[in-house]
Task: inverse folding
């Protein structure tokens, strides 16, 4: 309902001043005291709110999960610890936990998986971040192709999967240490590449700073970077791009 | 022509061993001695090669422009100085130069502009980077909507353009200083946001590091970051996303 | 008693040389061997000394609390651990401990709460720092309005509280990750904003550096920044400002 | 005019739907194409908009000054170069320029100066930043007391001005090199201290980073920090505090 | 024995070629396989070797202590853990351990304490580092005056000890957080100041970096800085300076 | 005149209240409006004030030199530009300028040079910083021995000067690039070593940060560090130490 | 088999199209699902693949060791924990573990040790990294000479081993703290020096950054640097150089 | 002549005590007052001394070139400016200058070029650094193969030169921006790779820090890194390795 529409209805007496006032002052979130659940987010962005579990007190986390499950029929959280899973399981026995990606969820119904996103990693130690990306994107309805351990120190491992990589709508390139994977992938594909630096490595990698800077400075085109270890963010963004590719976007009609 | 196809033709004697060898050893770039023009790039990525002019010696730059113009009928370069424009104009009088974006180009024919990308800036000082993004995307065939000087210190300026922003396939958010624009935009739209930190500011902005970190750490979803002042990279990536939205992407048929 | 006044009294024999010497060499602190309690601080600054508990050996902490309680009838400490609380409780059973803010105190009498300070946070994980600020300011006699979880990724949550925010004498904006909340608040209010970066986040937030730089570089006016996670400092400063607003300050009479 | 009031008038036919719509979609800024002058800022914050001149193209700057002068009867800009002054003088002969603070202004009428702000510097090299703060605050109507060259390497110079410092509503402490001045001042006064790190120094001062960190980590209470060399920001914030002290703030009536 | 002297003796047959060879190839350290004890150090520098205990395997540490005790009649180690003390006590029951400074030693005879070094700290949390400095210097024979908790947030505490400070041959100033103590002391005394940044603090102190930069950039004269938390280094250097003051140094006779 | 003495004289009527007040409020600096010359510094520290010329406006600098020359019969400034020298020469024709050290001075009478300080550099590019140190120390009355270009990449050059180095009261070790000279010297001598990192080098030396960290972390004893390129500071501190060695220091009588 | 050879055989019908296709699409690695063992690496580089154990899940690690042992008759891993050793021992009882270097291996037959590599350390705390280098190089067939605890604070310890050092084909210099060892060694030898910064130290060594920068900026020739604590990388590279020296390299025949 | 040999001759009276003393105190460098030419370097290291021209005063540089030319019949300097070339040409007309590499030399006779070093760059902007490496190595007698502009954003350009790369004794990989070239090359070859980060790029490359960290953290084996833009250092080290490969190294005879 647009502004003018509301105003016309007020004029016409179809809706009361109080209702209109509520409209103009509407509060699109659920006040929980300690938190404000963003219940309009799915409407606004097409994606339900996702819970960042790390550091949330047990009682808070449980009541957020209960609230969201009640409202949406499903709930999805990242960076959950095994301890949080065990607490949650007592209250919501149907909750599922994946040790590697640390995702804690109750999934209403398996979504239809559409389009294609390739998630690749440089090494095996990058897999947890990659799985956070992959499972996030799957939850949001994307089809995922995983290519793990294809880093540039053995470039033939990556080149042997060119067909897979070149048929994606979006590639998520996950790499720690020197993070060169993103540049090499970026030089091979025509679709957007979301680069995820990981904190894998030691010494002068400075907890992922090295990979982050590498990816930022990539001389290849079509690469953008998310935060260190932010698999969730990459999965979200890749899904947005994949959806645009599958469902089509907007075409400005004017002009 | 796929590998098996070539091999079958060799077997059938349809193509000679020499031709097939050339195929397997093909060198998809133009050797210019000092540089290797990536002439297959358009085929591989759907985008012609773009020249990064900054720091290239005059003679090199001129011969690269001539070569590319000859091959593609057009040529597009970024980070060109006024001096480079004046040198080039003597040889290629049809060359165009934009002082703000520092783009130096010969454009074959104006492309049809499809889809919609919003390019917004926090302040007026961010406009040169934004224009590099906008004009790059236009050159590659995207329709651009510019929203400049809508930074978060006067949030109403941004909110008054919600319609424009929400109808884009991709938003490019360009901001220096504290770079908060990307987070606010990211919280308002459902499409991907490409964040471009700029080196605008002073003191503890450390030549763009502040804005870069802000954008990296955004608590909003659907944001990825390119290098400081990298308008070109953002324009390129936004075009990739916009094309996927307009032209559609791949749908994995298998399974 | 001013310098000239003392001297006149010496001349007049009203006070002895020894007394005067003591005046000029007075030592306005309590020597405890390992520490020097700043007993003149309340006179000098209008605020009693507050104990930073973290890292203080148990025996030291207990004797400091006892000393201060004896002198002032109350005592207030920050960054106390649960362990310190338990040790203290044995000696001072009336001591109170708040798990979230980690404040350990014996409060003489509840102060009258005057003026108005808004303490807002970007997310729920910022609440401990915010509570340190809020409870500090309350202890010093300010009235607090808490607005938690109103970060910029859902800007409507903040905008729906404009009335509250605009009626404050001072706003304390607490945010980790990208720390953009301070800039947005700064653009909305006319009172001073004390920005508190928190170490909440991961990866390229570098333990709060990202939020600190964001707040430092804010393009909004009227913002100043305290140390990462320094809720106490923000609460103190906000109280100073709030008091000036309520009680009035100085008006230079001269000229 | 509040939301309900507008709606009641619509219902009553006192204002048209179109007028009401305009109210709800109002655009509180002046669109200049390349910039959006924030003409509601004075209403919102009590301070007119100030122009950051550095880097603005000559033509843009001149038209912004003309626009603002026309609207407000005065205009105030910071970080202006001598070149910008000379350009401006041709168009607005009444413009004034201060070489030290680099402020470029047309001041309508000298404001009444109220309250008291002390602006102090550690060394003589910090004076330009201090003057930006002092003159900004004067323009906004504060009374300023300047104490320059009172750094901690000769602490007696500072101590000899205790009376001045202790009678301020707010102290702005400007220091480069090691930036210790803020801590010492903070330990001496009961009013808020706005610390301004400057880029004065060399070597391991890293263009002001050293002073910034010093001020951030101050063990004194009641100190907050603005960006390196940000005299304007400190002057603005000090004025806000000074006004609260002079004019009084809000007292929350409820409860 | 000088080179020429040895050679003359060889010529004269007073010492054999083998003995002379040994002289020229002499190995002024004790080879322990895993370590090379620098047994000539006392001769070379006037100070016996001191053991840095942290991280040394138990067996190595014990045999080093035994070796040194046997050779020198005493042994002195820094950064020892309680665990290391307990292991050592079983083998060398006379060993003494100080929990605060973490010094583990067997002291032959109490040295005569000469000259005067002031060791001062900003806060109580800096005491462990200060004690490492003080006890090191005492072990090497210096007289120590301790002034703890005299940081700049209450400058009067420092000023009340001016007599003590001004009578030292060297001041060791130990401070974390903003580290301003060194600058203030440096401005008050005529003797060298050894500044020791500590890792005390949180947030933007970056484990002592803030204090280190402050001290490095001090605008006071006569200050030099040692590594973060390096109490031992400061105690050593202060002793060197104190000895020069007490025992006298060299006077170049030539010219 | 001590506090009690003054008071007794007041009581006895030997000095007036006004005189006594002046004593207690004495201002031991020369107020010049823009600066406060620290005229008591020589009394307090034994060293006259030295002018840091860099960045001082011409008129300020000239009047400071005139003032100081008048008061002390000599004046000494560092970091002077050739331009400043030329301006000064017009007013004070007797002024001397050294291009390498950038020292600008009028020296009353050549001081007697006492003791011995060795100033050594790693390379020839470090000489300007070394000369600032050496000439400062000479001005303050120390005897200097220069050993330049004795860096560790040809360790024999340093070892061939062991006699010189070992007979100093203090060594100033000046080095850029990797800064290893200080550690090697520190391992060879028994006197204090003042290490001066220089900004000589390129790439990962980060304008002297590399040398600074090297010197900070030296595993040799008896080394302290001053700011990058701070030859003056090193010369000052070395003179303090040299004086203590030559003139003797304090011996605490009490016990 | 070269490209042309394969094609000729296809033409001649000697090999089938399928076989040829397999050749052109060959996958030179063992797919293990979670990892891709690079089984061609020994052929390509002359070195078998080495396992980086740290962080690998137990089950993964065991199956990788089993697979590699089966294929190569031996297996070599670095950064193994004692826990990993205990798990492995149950399955492969012949596995050997070295606590210091943290190497976990099954060695087929002791290799002949050829050439000479010197591995030296500055202190005893650097030995674990040095042993990783030394044992890696031994496993790859190099002869190692160890010189431990020869850091620059007692330069005579290093100089007394000149013969050893000067007879090496390559020197690995391992040092933490200030890392000056590499520069000194580099100035003494004619062979390449591989510098390994270690994280040994505290405070301003920033976990090895100090040593890394020192080594990077070395003014000696013939030094290159590997990552902090990367003993394995240094051992590998030193072996490559040693092999070239022993076995001879390539001589370009053309021209 | 070894120590024992000298001593035996002294004993035998074959050489005088004075000659022997000179031997033991020999000074293997040419003292030039401002510099100490390391005339034994060629004997010690097999390489003549090379002059780092940048920043050397004209007169110094000229006399160093003259001295070295006289002694060695040739002289080689790096980082020379065109200005230095023009000054030098007046004195030594035979001097040659290369604008790109900035090498200024008089070459006695063209050396025989032996072995093979590949120098490759990621982009054309890296060529100046690569040429410094290549021409240095050629001067020292190595055969060079140049492969420029083969960066990873078009990996096929690199792969098409596999034959060249795989036949080298050493590869020098020069790259700015993200610096990924070294990792890819390292994964393809069996010889050592010397990685040279360059300062080419902008924004978050931080003047070469990004490429440096990438190369440091490479997951490929056999890579070591020299300073940013240090082409000379890479050329020197590559020559050492190439010589070992061509001329053979040492084989430890003992055991």
Result:
């Amino acid at each position: 309902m647009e502004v003018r529409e509301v105003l016309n209805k007020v004029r016409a007496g179809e809706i009361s001043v109080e209702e209109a006032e509520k409209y103009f002052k509407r509060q699109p979130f659920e006040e929980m005291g300690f938190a404000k659940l963003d219940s309009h987010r799915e409407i606004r962005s097409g994606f339900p709110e996702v819970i960042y579990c790390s550091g949330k007190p047990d009682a808070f986390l449980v009541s957020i999960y209960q609230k969201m499950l009640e409202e949406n029929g499903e709930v999805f959280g990242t960076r959950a610890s095994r301890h949080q899973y065990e607490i949650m399981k007592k209250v919501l026995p149907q909750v599922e936990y994946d040790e590697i990606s640390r995702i804690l969820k109750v999934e209403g119904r398996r979504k239809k998986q559409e389009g294609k996103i390739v998630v690749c990693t440089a090494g095996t130690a990058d897999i947890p971040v990659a799985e956070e990306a992959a499972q996030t994107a799957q939850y949001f309805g994307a089809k995922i192709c995983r290519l793990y351990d294809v880093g540039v120190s053995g470039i033939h491992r990556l080149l042997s999967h060119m067909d897979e990589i070149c048929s994606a709508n979006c590639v998520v390139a996950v790499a720690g240490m020197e993070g060169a994977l993103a540049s090499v992938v970026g030089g091979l594909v025509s679709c957007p590449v979301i680069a995820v630096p990981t904190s894998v490595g030691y010494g002068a990698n400075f907890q992922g700073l090295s990979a982050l800077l590498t990816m930022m400075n990539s001389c290849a085109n079509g690469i953008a970077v998310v935060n260190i270890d932010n698999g969730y963010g990459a999965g979200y963004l890749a899904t947005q791009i994949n959806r645009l590719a599958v469902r089509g976007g907007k075409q400005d009609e004017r002009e």
